[in-house]
Amino acid sequence: MPMPEPEPDQAYIEVSALEAGTMHLPMHLFIKDAAPGEVSVCPSLAFSLRHIPSGTHLVFDLGLRRDISTYPPIVQEYAKKWMPYSVPQTADESLLKGGIDPKDVQTIVLSHLHWDHIGDVAPFPNATFIVGEASRELLEKGYPANPTSDILQATIPIERTRFLSVSAFDTAVGPFPRAHDYFGDGSLYLVDAVGHLAGHINVLARTSAAGWWIYLGADCAHDTRLLTGEKEVAFMMDAQGRMLCAHADKDAAVEHIRRVGALLKLPRVHVLLAHDWEWYEKNKGGEAFLPGKISSL
Question: Where does the Metallo-beta-lactamase domain start and stop, copy by copy (predicted)?
Answer without folding.
Answer: 95-140
